[in-house]
Design brief:
The complex is a heterodimer of chains A (about 80) and B (about 260). Chain A has a single domain, classed as Mth169, Chain: A, CATH 3.30.1280.10. Helices cover about 35% and strands about 30% of the residues of chain A. Chain A is built from two helices and three strands; from the N terminus they run βαβαβ. Chain A has helices at about 15-25, 50-65, and strands at about 1-10, 40-45, 70-80. Chain B has about 260 residues and is α/β, with parallel strands linked by helices. In chain B, the strands form two sheets. In chain B, strands 2-1-3-4-11-10-9-6-7 form a nine-stranded mixed sheet, sandwiched between helices. In chain B, a hairpin with a 5-residue loop joins β10 (about 220-225) and β11 (about 230-235). Chain B is globular. The interface of A and B includes residues 13 and 16 of A. Chain B: This is Phosphoribosylformylglycinamidine synthase subunit PurQ. Chain B: Pathway: Purine metabolism; IMP biosynthesis via de novo pathway; 5-amino-1-(5-phospho-D-ribosyl)imidazole from N(2)-formyl-N(1)-(5-phospho-D-ribosyl)glycinamide: step 1/2. Chain B: Keywords: ATP-binding, Cytoplasm, Glutamine amidotransferase, Hydrolase, Ligase, Nucleotide-binding, Purine biosynthesis.
């Protein structure tokens, strides 16, 4: 099974990278751009079929490596 | 001393073994090695894969650089590999009062490990060294004011209030604490004497960018844990080993302080 994890910043954390991208897009003439959020996506291929167990493992992977809980939120999507 | 001696007598400088821990992408280990070597200690460059027992050493140092390419987050992969290999030993090493230091990327590793600020034992981070406000790598000399009243074993040799010129070179150095506990955590850092270095301008005042290269709250550049034996800072004292200020203080004093602590431990 493939699982996609999207890691983004928690609400209220200023994103200097997103602000910089927004500024550059505006300089390129995209005046309608209101906001840019940068997210990082991990697609993880994992063996086994027990979705509950896979979900638990994914949460542990996030906690142990993929996110820093001080700044990050994450979403998980199971891709068959 | 806060943690009684296990040798009885003080330790000879040349017997002090310092583990300068490296993995792929660390790149300041040589400067750190020579800082300890010049002071008469016995440092060793040790790849994490080759580390047998942390208790073979009297001090653990994590150098700067871009460990594991800074993939995922700066310091995150190095931290997870340390956790996988020596997590319990590392906590015991710290509990027994042995010094652990991290410079630049090493500071990021210690924060990702959860041992700084170290308010409680945890296996995930309780702080973050986040992208600089400028969203770019900031590389230049920075002025640091030593703020510690004597708790940090890495700076006891430096008088409080001393200002030093130490190079900074990082893209992620802004100290962030959990939003819901931010005020409480900053209060604790100051009350516990855990704030070690703060960025200042040439008048010695806490100033904004570019004096503070990353936007860290309260201009914090370096902190220690509650016991004072785990220490991390973003700027590089090992690159300012010879650059004495008018009072004769340089980056050297950081390494001298910790060696003196170990000698007396």
């Amino acid at each position: 099974m493939k699982v996609e994890i999207k890691v983004g910043l928690k609400e209220g954390i200023t994103d200097p990278e997103g602000l910089n991208i927004k500024k550059s897009l505006k300089l390129l003439g995209f005046d309608d751009v209101q906001n840019v959020e940068v997210k990082r996506s991990y697609v993880i291929e994992i063996s086994g079929k027990d979705e509950k167990k896979i979900r638990e493992d994914i949460d542990m992977m996030c906690k142990k490596l993929l996110i820093n809980p001080v700044i990050h939120d994450y979403e998980v999507e199971m891709i068959k | 001393m806060p943690f009684g001696s296990i040798w009885g007598d003080s330790m000879d400088r040349s017997e002090i073994k310092v583990c300068v821990l490296r993995i792929e992408g660390t790149n300041n280990e040589d400067e750190m090695y020579y800082a300890f070597k010049r002071l008469g200690a016995s440092p060793e460059l040790v790849h994490l894969k080759d580390l047998k027992d942390i208790f073979d050493y009297n001090c653990l140092m994590i150098p700067g650089g871009f460990s594991a390419g800074d993939y995922v987050r700066a310091g995150a992969i190095f931290a997870s590999r340390i956790r996988a290999k020596i997590a319990n030993d590392l906590h015991r090493f710290i509990d027994e009062g042995w010094p652990v230091g991290g410079i630049c990327n090493g500071f990021q590793v210690l924060v990702e490990l959860g041992v700084l600020p170290g308010f409680k034992r945890m296996d995930y981070p309780d702080a973050c060294l986040f992208l600089n406000n400028s969203a770019r790598f900031e590389c230049r000399p920075t002025l640091l004011k030593h703020e510690n009243k004597g708790k940090c074993v890495f700076t006891r040799n430096i008088p409080k209030g001393e200002i030093m010129l130490v190079p900074s070179a990082h893209g992620e150095g802004k100290l962030l604490l959990p939003r819901e506990k931010e005020q409480e955590y900053f209060d604790r850092l100051f009350e516990n004497d855990q704030v070690v270095f703060r960025y200042v301008d040439k008048e010695g005042e806490y100033a904004g960018y570019p004096w503070n290269p990353n936007g860290s709250a309260h201009n914090i550049a370096g902190i220690c844990n509650e016991a004072g034996n785990v220490f991390g800072m973003m700027p590089h004292p090992e690159r300012a080993y010879f650059d004495k200020n008018k009072n004769g203080i340089s980056g050297m004093n950081v390494f001298e302080s910790v060696l003196k602590y170990i000698e007396e431990k």
